[in-house]
Amino acid sequence: MSLSGAALDGVWRLRHHNHRQATHTWPARSAGMSADVVAMWDVSLSDGIFRIEFEHGTATGRRVIYINGKEVFRRDWMFRLVGKETFPVGSAGTKATINIEAITGFAYEYTLKIDGKSFQTFMANRSKTSKTWLLKLDGADCRIVLEKDTMNVWCNGQQMETTGDFGDDSTETHFSVGDHDCFITASSSNKKRSGIIHSLLIDGTRVPEVME
Q1: Residue 116 DSSP class
Q2: Residue closest to 36 by CA, chosen among 51, 50, 19
Q3: pLDDT digits 0-9 by tens, 120-178
Q4: What residue intervals traverse the membrane (predicted)?
Q5: Residues 51, 39: contact at Cβ < 8 Å?
Q6: Three-class secondary structure of residue 22 per DSSP
Q7: Helices (H), ranges, 8-140
């Protein structure tokens, strides 16, 4: 079979030339995954980054879903090769749906929706509604995420307990990571396009934002 690269819209298209000898090479595919894995997406959520892999055996109709290399869903011997499968992702149970559509002949298209939005739309919205910081604390990797609409703060997949401090020109959201004092400031940029600026400080030191 031949597999096109992942398009910018997160759509995978697969053509099976020979069911019995269907093989292809995956760049950075999780170790031990079946050769029937036909689509893969990396989804950034507040509670972590999740690699979703979908296995579709078109000879048997088998459907298997892996999240970060762990099998979370399986259906064997499906007579209907097209359809959709819905499953939760992450500790918050974010709703995800994989759609399977036939294009022509033995060609199939696989698309992912997160919270009812296409993969591309969801990821574009995430960049607008959240801020992410990556750093090391006490020698360990730390990923801190702010949800701008709710002001919820997550650290390495756990929602943090926070307190708010409201001033005339800015607000501060305080929380602790281990023995470290942390807070996120929200202040106006005085520019219409920039809107509100969010900054993370840990033990008084500003942490640069990253784009995932």
Answers
A1: T
A2: 19
A3: 999 999 988 999 999 999 999 999 999 999 999 999 999 999 998 887 778 999 999 99
A4: none
A5: no
A6: coil
A7: 119-129
pTM (predicted TM-score): 0.78
CA-closest candidate to residue 38, choices 114, 94, 86, 107: 107
Q: Are 180 and 187 in contact (CB under 8 A)?
A: no
How would residue 4 be classed by pLDDT, with cut points 50, 70 and 90? very low
Q: What is the pLDDT of residues 79-96, one digit of tens each?
A: 777 899 999 999 989 999
Q: Is the separation of the CB atoms in 40 and 53 below 8 Å?
A: yes
Minimal CA–CA distance to 48: which of 152, 125, 132?
A: 132
How far are the Cα atoms of 29, 45, 153, 179, 208 from residue 143, in angstroms, in the given order?
A: 23, 11, 10, 16, 12
Distance in Å from the first CA to the final CA of the chain: 31
CA distance 126 to 117: 11
Residue with tokens 């697969």: 14
